[in-house]
Amino acid sequence: MAKYATECIGTFFLVLTIGCTVVADLPGVIPPLAIGAALMVMIFAGGHVSGAHYNPAVTLAVCMRGRLPAKEVLPYWVSQIVGAGLAAAAVGFLRAGVETTAGAPAVGLALLAEFLFTFALAYVVLNVATAKGTNGNSFYGLAIGLTVMTGAFAVGDISGGAFNPAVAIGVSLMGLSAWSSLWIFLVANLAGGAVAALVFKGLNPGDR
After folding, report:
1. Band (78; pLDDT cuts 50, 70, 90)
2. pTM of the predicted model as reported, rounded to 2 decimal places
3. Cβ–Cβ < 8 Å for 123, 199
4. DSSP codes, 26-87
């Protein structure tokens, strides 16, 4: 149960940070920096317990890579989505009275943007947190957090920069993203995670 609680807590603080910074419409670089930092510290906090996925697409990638039993995927996903839902409720309380507008990105552009940076995120996770060549390193949390920050800067204005199905559900609950657009994130994010796992395995055939 400790690993599921860890996944819930880490996802909660990631989505809470996203909600509080975006709903408040904080200026310029603040949301991407805060979001990347929140993910980084939660990864360092929970990596030794659950692997600190905080993202269903990352969980899928780690499973396909062979570092998580298939039976664990659904409990991880449920824990992450519960964390995102609790965070959305907390943001609704903390930012009560602030009006939100549900975004609806252009389908083709959003699919590509979300796929590319979810691929990048999962690819980085697999290489810095599961590969034999980087085993025991002290930088994995920083590398993963900076990947999300980079994606938010690069394509946040195109897709919203979720790169994470749990985040997509959370921001939909907050009214920041239209429910009709949720499928875009689910498809692109899970596909990005799956392809990253296949690429990792292809490039590292001896790393099992």
Report:
1. very high
2. 0.96
3. yes
4. --TTHHHHHHHHHHHHHHHHHHHHH----SHHHHHHHHHHTSS-GGGHHHHHHHHHHHHHHH
Chain segment 136-188, per-residue pLDDT in tens: 999 999 999 999 999 999 999 999 999 999 999 999 999 999 999 999 999 99
- Of 190, 123, 122, 113, the C-alpha closest to 152 is 113
> Distance (Å, rounded) from C-alpha 120 to C-alpha 114?
10
DSSP annotation of 174 reads T
Place of tokens 């691929």: 119
- Tokens representing 152 are 């938010």
Structural domains of the chain, ranges and CATH numbers in brackets? 2-203 (1.20.1080.10)
3-state secondary structure 110-125: HHHHHHHHHHHHHHHH
Six-digit token string for 72: 């664990």
Q: What is the per-residue pLDDT across 93-102, written as a single tens digit (0 to 9) for each?
A: 999 988 888 9
Number of neighbours of residue 202 by Cβ within 10 angstroms: 8
